[in-house]
Fold this protein.
Amino acid sequence: MSAVDADVLGVLAGLYRRQKYHLVGAHSAVKRCRWLYESIVHGRACYKQKFYGIRSHRCVQMTPSLYYCTMRCLFCWRIQPRDVNPAFKEPEPPDRWDSPEEIVDGAIRAQLRLLSGYKGNPKADKRRLREAFEPKHAAISLAGEPTLYPFLGELIREYHKRGFTTFLVTNGTNPRVLAQLEEEPTQLYVSLYATDAKGLARLCRPRIAGAWKRISETLGLLSSFNCPTVIRITLVRGFNMDDVEGYARVIGKAEPTYVEPKAYMHVGYSRKRLGFSNMPTHAEVQRFAFQLAERLGYNVLDESKESRVVLLSRLEKPIKIA
């Protein structure tokens, strides 16, 4: 690692800690999801529980590649180095990576630490809190691009060995990694932000050459997976909501189990790059989703108004994971 990268990582680590990220090892992290709190204190669940049956209070939101990504999306809540200092560059991935066992052990410890504060909260539901101390779901999706972690299949396997389900979320720019996974996740999410290379460049600012071609290759792989697959479209008003036909064309070739059109949320460091006006309403997401479903021949299975997301599928009802 260069001295410049070390300096950038030091600054980023400090900022992540201030945002209540629990750093794990050299490049991983866990952060309390809002819905973990809502589930324990108010009995309200996230849309993944509503759609797929996972338990929000038993879910670990984590990443094995906190500082590293192949794109610099305008809507990403992640701290990007240039958000902090225009002279900062994205750090290069490390020469040595932590092992899957180290990451899973550290992630579980971090989750239990962040849960410890709920013991003194009189509003916390005792049964759900007790269950939360035995987490069962790992959302490999917090920040960064997880396919940059070179032992991703082994990481997924390590979670499965411990009785976890896994949700892997990727931007699709590393199709070779997905094609060679030693173990599939319980459910695979591929994020789709545009219908062509020009739209991708405007919204996501790829750091690698041929990003759109790579994403297209990833979409072509989806039918080879045995696990349920999801294409999640992050909708950003003013950028990527007008070409429903284009999305239908791209998604129709991939034939995912589900499609989730979801609104960009004006949170985190994305507020430095986009305005509140770029966040679509749920009504706008619904309109987009219904038009897309009609063109794809998919059913509208469910929705979450609070998360501004709609679930589409050829299935009559979603597969419950847990």
